[in-house]
Each structure stands twice: as structure tokens, then as C-alpha cells.
């Protein structure tokens, strides 16, 4: 049997949407679906009277009901799937992240609404996205329209094989176009201090050279992937913009935004770009860990 697609649920509507997304993805990949839930103990319950066993049993009951509800929702969108469920033990964030071991990908829901999404993205979802050993897809509320486009953010073309491989595979599975984007700063770093007029001309020349180099490097890396996936229509773009702003805005037009995660599982590089994208995205975001050295 192929490796499963795993989705974590907690009974919330956000996690039910994630379960539906995961079910469609599992069907696309001809993979089994594993639905997991991790009972937790909200801080406000610790002050309540009652035995620890009683509280733990109640929480396990909530998690079990979440699993049952998720099975029902999955059946509505992909009735032929092979589905199994599992109650996880341990700290919810860690347990959910570790449930991705051996999976094709792990799917989680994002809590939040409006401009405050950056503040209220579920802590479990954020932890999983930055620590799980497999690609993690964070599903947002604005996930309905089909655009037939996968967007992949390429920070360093020379170290983007994991993200590009995932993005091309998704595009091939969906029959979608793929757009690879690379953001560069407005001004070239280290420009010499000269007069305002000469300085402006020097910066313009340096910026043009930087952009040309970036386009050439991106095209060179993409060439090998084009040969591997000849049926995937590909576009490349180099944009002068803050990477997080660019990627978050593009997430609204894509069926899936793919970004890379550098560092080993459990030891993310602390990229502010990744956190900003997760906080402000308008559509599903896949966070793909880098390939082992």
C-alpha cells in the first residue's frame, strides 16, 4: 500500500475543511487517508474541579467525536477512499507533527479570520508546518475555487529541489499550470556611495544586472524540471518585491502555494518569510522540508 495522506482534526470547522481537502488529495494520489486527533487539555480546564482521569476521558471523547465527524465529511467528497483513524497520545502539537512520519504529506487547518489571521493561526498547525518530517499543507477558509495553477516560491534556485519536486508533482496530478516565482530586493546590496544622480544610475544598472542574473539562474534550474515533467506548462517570474508579500498575494489565485523549509525537522531556520506567508495566506500553503544533505 502507498504511503498515506494524513490529516489532523480537532472538531473545528477549520479542521473539517482540512479533512475534505486531504480526502481529495488522497484520491488524486490513489493513497489511503489517515485521520488523526490529539486530545489536549486547554489551560482553562485545569482550574476546574474533577479528577484528572475524568477530564482526560472527556477530552478523549471529544477527539473521538472529531474523528467520527471527519470520517463522515470525508465520505461526502471521496467515498471510495481507504480511511483509518487514530487517537494520538502526548502533547498535541508534537503528536500531530510526528504523525507525518512516513506520510506523503500532512494536512492541517488554520484558524483565523480577516486581518487577524497572522495572530491566531493555530499553534498546532504552525508547529506542524515547521517541524513535521514531511510536507505540510495548511488549509485556509478561502479554499473553494479551482484555478488550475500551482505557485512555487523559489528563494534559492540552487537549494529548491524539494519544493520544486513537490510543486511539479502537484501540477502534474491536477493537470495545472506551474508558476515559479523568485523575489529580489529593490536595490542591490553593497552599492557604492556616490552622488545622487550617479548613484541613481549605478543602482539602476546594478538592479538590472541583479534581475538578469536571477532570471538566468532560475531558468537554468527550471530547465531540468521542464524535461522531467514535459506536460506541465511552466512560467517563471522574477519580481522586485518583499517575498512574503508576494507569496501571500499569489496564494489567493493558486490552488496551492508551495514554499520550502530549510533545516532539519525540528530545527527550522526561523525564516520570517515562512511565518509571514502562513499568517497572511488566502489559500492552501504547502511547506516542504529541504532534502537531506
Structural descriptors:
single chain, elongated, 2 domains, 10 strands, Rossmann fold
Q: What does the model show?
A:
There is one protein chain. The protein has 293 residues and is α/β, with parallel strands linked by helices. It has 2 domains: 1-141, Rossmann fold, CATH 3.40.50.620; 142-293, 3-Layer(aba) Sandwich (Rossmann fold), CATH 3.40.50. Helices cover 43% and strands 18% of the residues. It has a 10-stranded mixed β-sheet with strand order 3-2-1-4-5-10-9-6-7-8, with helices on both faces. Strand 6, helix 6 and strand 7 form a beta-alpha-beta unit. Helix 8 runs parallel beside helix 9 (272-280). The protein is elongated and about 70 Å long. The relative contact order is 0.14. Residues 112-120, 188-195 and 264-270 have low confidence and may be disordered.
Order of helices and strands: EHEHEHEHHEEHEHEHEHE
* Strand content range: 15-25%
Strand order of the largest sheet: 3-2-1-4-5-10-9-6-7-8
Backbone CA Rg: 21 Å
Average pLDDT taken over every residue: 84
Q: Sheet bearing the most strands, described?
A: 10 strands, mixed
Q: Quote the distance from N terminus to C terminus.
A: 28 Å
Q: What multimeric state do the chains show?
A: single chain
Uncertain spans: 112-120, 188-195, 264-270
- What is the number of beta strands? 10
Question: What would CATH call the architecture of the largest domain?
Answer: 3-Layer(aba) Sandwich
CATH topology of the largest domain: Rossmann fold
Going by helix content, strand content and strand pairing, the class is alpha/beta
Q: What general outline do the C-alpha atoms trace?
A: elongated
Helical coverage, percent range: 40-55%
Amino acid at each position: 500500500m502507498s504511503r498515506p495522506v494524513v490529516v489532523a482534526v480537532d472538531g473545528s470547522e477549520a479542521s473539517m475543511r482540512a479533512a475534505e481537502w486531504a480526502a481529495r488529495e488522497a484520491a488524486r494520489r490513489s493513497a489511503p487517508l489517515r485521520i488523526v486527533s490529539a486530545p489536549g487539555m486547554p489551560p482553562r480546564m485545569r482550574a476546574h474541579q474533577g479528577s484528572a482521569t475524568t477530564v482526560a476521558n472527556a477530552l478523549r471523547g471529544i477527539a473521538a467525536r472529531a474523528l467520527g465527524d471527519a470520517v463522515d465529511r470525508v465520505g461526502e467528497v471521496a467515498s471510495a477512499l481507504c480511511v483509518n483513524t487514530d487517537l494520538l497520545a502526548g502533547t498535541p502539537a508534537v503528536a500531530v507533527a510526528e504523525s507525518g512520519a512516513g506520510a506523503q504529506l500532512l494536512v492541517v487547518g488554520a484558524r483565523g479570520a480577516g486581518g487577524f489571521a497572522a495572530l491566531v493561526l493555530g499553534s498546532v498547525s504552525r508547529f506542524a508546518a515547521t517541524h513535521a518530517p514531511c510536507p505540510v499543507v495548511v488549509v485556509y477558509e478561502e479554499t473553494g475555487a479551482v484555478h488550475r495553477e500551482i505557485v512555487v516560491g523559489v528563494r534559492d534556485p540552487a537549494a529548491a529541489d524539494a519544493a520544486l519536486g513537490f510543486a511539479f508533482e502537484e501540477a502534474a496530478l491536477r493537470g495545472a499550470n506551474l508558476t515559479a516565482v523568485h523575489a529580489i530586493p529593490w536595490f542591490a546590496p553593497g552599492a557604492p556611495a556616490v552622488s545622487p544622480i550617479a548613484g541613481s544610475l549605478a543602482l539602476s544598472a546594478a538592479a538590472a544586472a541583479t534581475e538578469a542574473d536571477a532570471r538566468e539562474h532560475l531558468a537554468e534550474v527550471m530547465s531540468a524540471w521542464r524535461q522531467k515533467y514535459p506536460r506541465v506548462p511552466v512560467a517563471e517570474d522574477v519580481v522586485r518585491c518583499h517575498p512574503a508579500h508576494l507569496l501571500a498575494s499569489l496564494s489567493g489565485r493558486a490552488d496551492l502555494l508551495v514554499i520550502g523549509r530549510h533545516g532539519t525537522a525540528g530545527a527550522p531556520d526561523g525564516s520570517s518569510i515562512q511565518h509571514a506567508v502562513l499568517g497572511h495566506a488566502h489559500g492552501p500553503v504547502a511547506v516542504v522540508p529541504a532534502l537531506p544533505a
